Amino acid sequence: MDITTPALLFPAISLLLLAYTNRFLTLAQVIRQLAGSDNDDMALARAQIPGLKRRISLIRFMQTFAVISFLLCALAMLAIFLAHSSLGHWLFGLSIVTLAVSLVLSLIEVVISTQALSVVVTDLEQRIGNRP
Q: Which of 99, 60, 95, 61 is CA-nearest to residue 76?
């Protein structure tokens, strides 16, 4: 393995961090909208709060593991550059493991997000069903 192998992971991790940041910003916007909603929507907001809390925590851990992966990848390239290829292999392997953990957490967050959308759809169906 030469220095280009871990270098290939660099842009992927950067894009992943950008995607995670966008998810966080979108979640923050949803929370702010729920906080400013009318009293009529409090039941819907109350139903979503546990999922929102879990999603905030998951996104924090997703970002943490992605940053650790990025740092390990950089250290792997440095180790390979300094002719410590064995250390570079280990660091690159750890980088891939932490990236995989970040991706699994991302999948869990997507599942929770989907469940939250189901709550909103159910509420919408009830509102439409209650109208004359």
A: 95
